[in-house]
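Bench notes, afternoon.
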Amino acid sequence: MQPIIVWGHWGVPFRKVCIILKRLQIPYHYNIVEFQDTKKEPYISINPNGRLPAIEDPNTGMKLWETGAIILYLVEQYDTEGRISYKDQINKFQCVKWLMFQVSGQGPYFGQLAWFARFHQPKVESAIERYANEMERIFGVLDSSLEHSDWLVGDKCTFADLSFATWSHISKGLMQELGRSASMEKFPRYNRWLKTIEEMEPVKECLEEIATERAAHGLPP
């Protein structure tokens, strides 16, 4: 099997894809693209939206961008044993549902909070408050959904659970910076779930890589 070609950088979305690649033991070749080069050639020809990551699978000829699409492709193409997915229609689309919630809810809201809390000048307190509240709302959605199960779908950790790992990990630092760490006590099931995911070897490895790369860029873990 030829390695999947991945274009990415130290950002959270790239590592979300890497977790899936590592969990499925898919070899990959990592091409670093600096953020200032994402809207220039040659990368803009790979992804006209100019965002990271993107992949090319030389084994099938598939080229994709958008993390949700990439994850669905990798699972469909390479998770033949159902290690992190299901084949029956009900559980399969329950996993897809949660992935869509991650890419449309968690990712954008947590990313906007990180931007307004850490980078935007001048500080816009109303934006920080809005996105912090949305982050807590998403914690609540996940917490309530874990009331009767250890996992979001079925009886095992799937790509649905794994897709939340990177931003959930980053959010702990954001909550601490904003003085809202105590709010996390309201979500005990979510906290246990996240801790279990973080201790899985592929996830642990990727989170360590995120911390190292963020530190190199002067950012908190």
